[in-house]
Structures
1.
Amino acid sequence: MIVIAVLAIIVGAFAYSMRVETILARNSENEPEFDWLGRSGVELARYLVGQQLAIGMEPYDSLNQKWAGGPGNSNSILANVSLENNVVGRGKFSIKIEDQERKFNINMADEMILKQACILVGVGPTESSAIVDSILDWRDPDEATHLSGAESEYYLNLVPPYRCKNGPLDDISELLLIRGIVPEMCGMKGVGGPVVAQPKTGGTRLALIQAQEAAGYTNSFMNLFCVASMGLINLNTATAEVLRLIPGVDENIAEAILKRRRGVDGAEKTEDDLPFRSVGELQGIPGISPQGAQQANRFFSVRSATFEVTVTAEIDGRTRTMVALLRRNAPNDVRVLVCRWK
């Protein structure tokens, strides 16, 4: 009986091992197909944003256009293009495209913009000074410390230690490495995301997080900033909070801008949307003077040039996600800056 039991265990283990190997082999066989699905999604996105630029009757980029998931123009070349459930071989893919110009490029944000971002996030005045100066120190090329900032001398005394970047942010999650910024300011709970260093001495990380949660942040730096846009905010795709980063744009003006572009039904991404065709049309927004509308060209545009593409590929119930960053220079010149599997 003991021999039979041992044999049963061995056979069971062998069967399980074979099942795992079969699954791994099947997944391995699917890899080339997933690559094709992911690349097909990126190519479709390149086509969509490129052709949108070629539509002469729409000299702008907006949320009701096809690339953004809107209905688009029924008479355009993109009318019959679908972003969802495109079948290729045994699999299918769906894409989501978001322009980066809906946010402000944090690598181009000056002290005034950074201070306003802290206000919108709900950071107190004392914390704000340290965060703003530390972001400026993180980006600048030297080791000279701003009044309330931090350079490598500070970061090398953390656990784990690391050096100050002294260059532009390559990913918005880098904010979590900067002195004073905690996950809750970036819309995260607890210590998720990148490893956040802590001082070698002083209060615990848990106490810091509890203090930040108690502060009740009203927004997130992630919702306001990106790292790859061309620098101007697209009036047709930005949120009210992003619009309020700009001097002179208060809550009422930001909401008036959104109300204008939403059209009669008051909803985004519908056929009756009224996108801004030029920044000069801000003159029609209550609270904005002709002079203010002229100065707005320093901060706003109605076009986007940088797009993040998320491709969801599916084969036999198994899904993978590819993310790409595109830069559109012309209808036939849409370049892939970054492409990776999540």
2.
Amino acid sequence: EIRDALAYCRVTVQHDDDLAFERIYNTPRRGLGESALRTLRLVQRTQKVSLFEATRRALETDELKARPRKSLGDLIRNFERWRAMLDGMNHVEVVETMLDESGYTDMLRIDRSPEAEGRLENLKELTNALQEFDSLPAFLEHVALLTDMADRSDTDMVSVMTLHAAKGLEFDTVFLPGWEEGLFPNQRALDDKGLAGLEEERRLAYVGLTRARKRAYVSFAANRRVFNQWQAAIPSRFLRELPTEQLAESSDAGLYATYSAGHHGGLREQASGFDYESLGVPGGRRTRWRDETADDRRAVQGDKVDLSIGQRVFHQKFGYGRIVAVDGNKLDIEFEKAGPKKVLDSFIEAA
């Protein structure tokens, strides 16, 4: 019951917490089975969004049956309302209201098992503990810290931290991801402080590298999804400043290669005509990039079907039909047997 209550709190504070949402989306029971969850997961995968957002998008279509749609619609609206209540109400009252309105407290009250009364008492202790914190997010951070400490053991583990937090620490192996222009060095630091900001970022790069006693793995992405848009990434200028005699390079086939690797076909010296010299980065050994191909674009954009009004399509659930209206990724389709339905384009294919 404590884990369930914490899951409700986590989704209220952060809608995109998929594990918490999946834990309580049908607790207490709301008539939601595996079929509804499969539909939500399919929307989540195809749209590349959180489970909460996938539910919100599925509610705008006819993919869900009437009863699951109503139950999920009520749940989504409740979470949005509880989150808004945190701005004007005491967080303890909000949690108590949330547990009552969700039906969770009533579920325990009608439970006739010997443990039911103790579970209700545990919920009361939870709300008492909340009073010691200024806000619900502060309480959840404290719980996460305690959980992390409780899970620690003498076995090997990974410590995740910021570069600032790593100062003064050392590890045998260090992983440094995200070495891309705009990300590291951070574009905001460059815009706000200019060269001073660049030097600050360079010092952070030095801090990160020197945390490693034996090995440091530095990585960057060829493409990164930013604000739901795929963008080509340019490797950080700091990579050009690393001592070449200390480096061992590798990349996925077809993305990046060095002169020393001997891959020359279809490669060019700079990505998208980018000029490192304009950043004040000295010359030296250069990394080569392969020109973008149609296969690359398909890998990034996915195999999308061009859809138009009047086109005959097939839906796994509703069968064959014709498109009567297109609104972004939502389609109004007149199905031959199921009648008019609104569906997501990721669920249909050309007939």
3.
Amino acid sequence: MRFDPDVTLSVLKFLGFEQVFKNSLTGLPMGGAKGGANFNPKGKSDREVMRFCQSLMTELHRHIGEDTDVPAGDIGVGGREISYLFGQYKRLENRFVGSLTGKGLTFGGSLVRTEATGYGCVYFCENMLNHAGDSLQGKTCVVSGSGNVAIYTAENAIELGAKVVTLSDSSGFVHDPDGIDAEKLVFIKSLKEVDRGRISEYADHFSRAKFYAGQRPWSVSCEVAFPCATQNELSLDDAKTLIGNGVLAVAEGANMPTELAGAHAFVNSKVLFGPAKAANAGGVAVSGLEQSQNALRLSWPREDVDTKLKSIMSDIHQKCVKHGQANGYVNYVRGANIAGFIKVADAMLAYGVV
């Protein structure tokens, strides 16, 4: 579910198409769909957002359900919005079921769901590097965005020994040459998740950091790049800049953040390029695990969910390698597309003419 001024029917159709293959890659029993509205929650009060979510769910509730379509968060739809949507669903349906995922922990949510897309993206990147005989340890990383995906991508990369030097939002990006450590990340979480402020305030608070208004972070030299903001944020010119600066791996945390020409440039230059349908499948994977917990009326410990997430991302990586390896290089785009398609095609053939 996406709330963004750029949402159109064609965008949702394409994202839904991609979602089918992403969900297929997880190995979980899920189809795929996409929905949203061109409502912009930025600058709106909590009450305005609540009223919109309630109005939307008043129509949507008849089309969704725990065994039909199960919405989860995307751009503009975080914990606040999911809570309002679920509250209205429960009021209208008079049922407490796993009809949405990304819920709060006090009403059926799963541990690690908030972190899942970012954590999963880093686990996938680590798998790519490990397969090539390397790791994230000691690598300089550039991350775009400063929402859930970007924040928890940065957090997990830091935990695995990487040095994250950028974050961004729609106003520009900050570059911290000293690296964004765990303490600084606490400030960013408060800034973006509580105060809903701008990333420029990070540079006001930490003197060594510099804010670049209206720019994206791809000019900063790095070994690993994580585009985690929005679609089409990384152009061909950006890709050429990253390649020229010696980037080793790119893992897409956002949905389709790299333009097609940029993706081709990475593959042609033999950069380890993890496409969104594989690299950011961690979010929907833990959504599936949340559905399982709701159905069982159980709540699994954090360590159990994180272990399952790691395993799912490792399995996705293995599928990509199986179908994408040729001449000593793994084309993860090809591998993800083929692996995702095969499962969907097999199921459709098994159903017969319907």
4.
Amino acid sequence: RAWNSAYGGVYVEKTGDMVSNPFMKEPDMITRDGRVFTLKPPAVMTKEISTYAGNRDQFFFRITSLKPLNPANAPDAFERDALNRFESGQKEYYRNEMIGQSMYFRYMAPLFVEESCLGCHGDSGYKTGEVRGGISVNIDVGRTERELKRNFVVILVLGVLSLTVLLLVVFYFTGNLIEHINASRRWIEELIITDDLTGISNRRHLLSRFEEEFNKAGRLGLPLGCVMFDLDRFKAVNDKYGHLAGDEVLRRFAALLSQEARSYDVLGRLGGEEFIVVLTSTGIDETRSFAERVRAHVEDMVCEIEGVHGFRVTVSAGVTVMREDDTSIENILGRADEAMYAAKAAGRNRVC
């Protein structure tokens, strides 16, 4: 409307059953080649755009006034109420209203008299800067809500739906946007707690979960087992077969621990070639049995990567359980570390 008004109206060629504006003086113009053009002022163009959108079940709007040139543009009750409010200085007006069988969101904003308006409305007694009318927008909220029931998030966003058609279109894409944001957040959270090489818990998350199980076991009086694993002569594997081979060994060992541990046990990579498994509700005998089972599987495991014939590795393990006088997980880790080094000193490939 503002664009049209800035040019004092827009001429279009009369075709078909197009009718000239009967409320304007000499709206038509004939070109030298005989074609007839008629002037479309802002209000007429706005009405035709509204009709175009309404025929496609989108929304409809129009310009109305307390003193319309065209009686068909006279305000209804809602619009008259809004126009009176604008005369008192209110900037906008809106409410929900039943029209026919559907609920509509009705919005109205004032239009002020500009110099370009006086060409059509000069005889109405308006002055520049005065409120001469308003633009009334009607959106079928009932239809929109029915279409958005498939997406709960978008319905929540619809609760704070803004007052313009542009934002309504944006809300259609909000569901997908939030889904992508949530997926990105889950990916970041997983990245923070996961060792990127082995796919199991990293040191920080491992110790955090260990602390949780330690507090739970102390509170409920439950046993808690801990095994510290260290791959034997791992540096020699890297030196002889390369770091790709070493990485493959770490991944296969982590996969073995995940396979042997229960879903509610805690396992992770402490650092380098050291791993921790915390066995909940498990005493010393069961903890030692678990460690021995893992050690045996590693001893039987044949590692192969491209360009390197199969080679074997072994692992040493230190076993301990939570004691009544333990005040933190550091006490348990210290004993597990001592036991693991005792296994190393006793010849490696064993459980102590």
